Amino acid sequence: MGREELAVAFDAFERAGWRGRSEAYKQGVAVLTARLIEPVLDEARVGAGSRVLDVGCGPGGVSAAALARGAEVTAADAEPEMVAATARRLPGVRVEHAILPVLPFGDGEFDAAVGNLVINHVGDPRAAVRELRRVVRPGGRVALTSWYYPKMRATVVFDEAVAAVGVPRPADVPEKSPFQAYGTPESFAGLLQDAGYTEVRARTLEWEHTVDPEEWWTAILTGTARTAAVIARQNPATIERVKAAYHAILAPHLTEDGRATLPAAALLTSATR
Ligand SMILES: C[S@@+](CC[C@H](N)C(=O)[O-])C[C@H]1O[C@@H](n2cnc3c(N)ncnc32)[C@H](O)[C@@H]1O
């Protein structure tokens, strides 16, 4: 498959993969992604009166924090259910159904655009960053995050469990995100530089995510797109084997109260139009 075909297939998978997951995502994975909200808004220099676009808003955590800073928020997501969840959570906020890399906004309409864990879900990251540059004003900021896989364990333990059991990946589930080519601070920065941005900054953030192992298993199986598809589509016996492998992988991370503390890491890149 060429890059364009891969992008189309990846986007199609993502559209189907997020359907029906907004509530589960909010309860589980959003707690992990919340750690990045304030750093993203800081990098985008969002403050009182900023006109900010929260793209791939999910259930609205970034938008809520931007509102708390006094910003004028527009939220957008590719999944209608996420759009509805954010609209319910933040009455009065403009929330649009929109799919990167095509946004229904005018040139320079925003002072800042932020996307927390979204660029790794788009089929064509280069087109996406160009589109985000288009909708911010000259001098405006864009800030984006993705997982930093060399240091990330909180979600990667599921991939490790799948690998340990040797589960075959369903043919329609993409092996990796097209963004994986930009998975270091240098290459993520290069993606933005090549799109014409200036003042590009890229760094990694590391923290610990503490989970109840059973709740985290359910959270990932019900609130993610790709990992959930690989595991949940297996037969019950195979799912049980993956779960046993997951518990074995978590064992060294368990604390006295039965919870597990897992390393988490993200890339945060920001730039000026
Ligand atoms: C991992 S969630 C992140 C949600 C939220 N930003 C947060 O901080 O938790 C990814 C979100 O991006 C959305 N998404 C995926 N591909 C997208 C695209 N091409 N354009 C806009 N949103 C997209 C998904 O529907 C989902 O809500």
Automatic annotation (TrEMBL):
GO-annotated biological processes: methylation
Top EC class for this record: transferase
Gene Ontology MF: a single term: methyltransferase activity
Signal peptide coordinates: none
The organism's place on the tree of life at top rank: Bacteria
E.C. designation(s): 2.1.1.-
UniProt domain Methyltransferase type: residue ranges: 53-143
Keyword Methyltransferase on entry: yes
Protein name as catalogued: Class I SAM-dependent methyltransferase
Native organism: Sphaerisporangium rhizosphaerae
